[in-house]
Amino acid sequence: MGSVVLLSLEEIAEINSSLGYSVLNKGSLDFLGSKLKSVRLTGDELKDVGKVASILWYEIIRNHPFCDGNKRTAAESALYFTKINGFSLNIPPNGIIYLSLKIANNDITLENLTKEVQKRLEKI
Q1: Which domains are delineated in the chain?
Q2: I need a surface site. Which of 54, 100, 101, 121 has the fewest CB within 10 A?
Q3: Cβ distance 113 to 99 under 8 Å?
Q4: For the segment 59-86, what is each residue's pLDDT rounded down to a tens digit?
Q5: pTM, whole model, 2 decimals?
Q6: What is the C-alpha separation between 36 and 39, in angstroms, rounded?
Q7: Burial state string for 2-13 with b = 16 or more CB within 10 A and e = fewer than 16
Q8: Rounded CA separation 10/18 (Å)
Q9: Quick check: helix, strand or coil at residue 123?
Q10: Is 2 left (phi over 0), alpha (psi -120 to 50) or beta?
């Protein structure tokens, strides 16, 4: 995937485990892994990191691979992913909660989430 460093499924499961939960649907987690590996990157680091972070955030919430803590795991995974790729996501905690709820309620598309994330990424 070029210069973008992906999170492993084990790292995502560890984030969820650190919140006190466990995997419910390994198939959903495996599907997420396949989806991440198949992302077409543009070579534009900001756009690519924003796209992958959005997929992480969106797909974990929408596909519920964990018993509980899917929204928290999704947000933490997206934030950690941006950090290991040299970016920070300039969204306050209440904005993270707001966007997570919008995803859960199907009030935002993956495309619109990606635009929002890309707009708020800052190189660190």
Answers
A1: 9-123 (1.20.120.1870)
A2: 101
A3: yes
A4: 999 999 999 999 999 999 999 999 999 9
A5: 0.92
A6: 5
A7: eebebbebeebb
A8: 12
A9: strand
A10: left
- Angle at which helix 93-104 crosses helix 110-120, to 10 degrees, equals 170
* 3-state SS, one letter per residue, for 6-57: CCCHHHHHHHHHHCCCCECCHHHHHHHHHHHHCCCCCCCHHHHHHHHHHHHH
Place of tokens 């796209």: 51
Tell me the one-letter amino acid at 49. V
The DSSP secondary-structure symbol of 1 reads: -
CA nearest to 74, candidates 97, 90, 51, 94: 97
Amino acid at 74: A
Q: Which two tokens stand for residue 105?
A: 């309620």
The number of residues in the chain equals: 124
